[in-house]
Each structure stands twice: as C-alpha cells, then as structure tokens.
Design a protein that fits this description.
two-stranded antiparallel ribbon; 7 strands; about 30% helix; 4 helices; OB fold (Dihydrolipoamide Acetyltransferase, E2P); about 25% strand
Length: about 160
Amino acid sequence: MKLFSANASQIIEQHLKVSQVIDGDSIKVVSIFNKLEKEIRLYGLDAPEIKMNRKLKEDEMKTQVAGKFLIQLGILSLKYILKLAPPETKITLITEKENFKDFYGRQLGYVILPDGSCLNEILVREGYAKALNDYACSELAHYQELNFAAMQERRGLYAFAKRY
C-alpha cells in the first residue's frame, strides 16, 4: 500500500477524530481538544449519493444508471467507509493550501488513518469511489490510475455496475 505523499503545499491537522460518516465522500471530524466539528469533502473522488437530490439526478443523466440503483451503490460506499473509519477513529487531515474548499464551502482533505494509509486512496483503489477531477488535487493522476484498475478488475461498486 502506498503511503500518502502529496506534492502540494499542505496544512496538516492532527488530534482529530471522525465524528460522523455522512456518505461515501464526506465525513465530519471533531478536534479532540476544543471539540470544534467540521465537514470534510474527500479530495479527488466521488461516490454515489445516498438520497434523492439534485446531484443524484445529474448523475442519473450522466451515467444512464437509475437513481434508486445509484443510491444502493452509495449506501455500499458509506458502509465501506464505516468499516475503515467509524466514528471515534483518530485521523490526521491533510489539506492542500491551493485547493482548500469546495464549491459548497466544505474543507477538502486527505484523511490519513491510524496505520498511515490514506482513506481517499483506499476508496478509489478498492472501487468504492471513482476518481473525480472537479476539485484539483496533487494525487488526481494516481487516483485515476487506481480507478481504472478497479474498473478493470471489477472491485467494489464496479462488481455491480460498469459506471456510477
């Protein structure tokens, strides 16, 4: 497993733990010391939605995959994150200074697990999220390679769908 190594100028935050897994590409974290909570959108990837919303309708049109099926895939992605990083998991958060927030004002980040592995990378490599270039990140080319391999080997969500 490749340990995380972003090339961009970074902000590293420690002493955080997962407080909630929102969906397959977003979590909430809380500071162990001051109890401040914030939502984090994972860099470089996208997972199917878990409820009906505007983005799900867009994904339905782009992929030509039924929304109800996409929701089921999104729930599988959510469950996979809950296995890897359930609430109370201590994490380190790395954010690239150049690409700090997404369109909705959420902080973007790489989530480093206690064993030093990167949650973002695992999700893409194992096929539970796809590489996404909507928000630039230094690991995008690597994630695109991992995503292609996951598709070819029908790992994770690709075992159920050719695209999502």
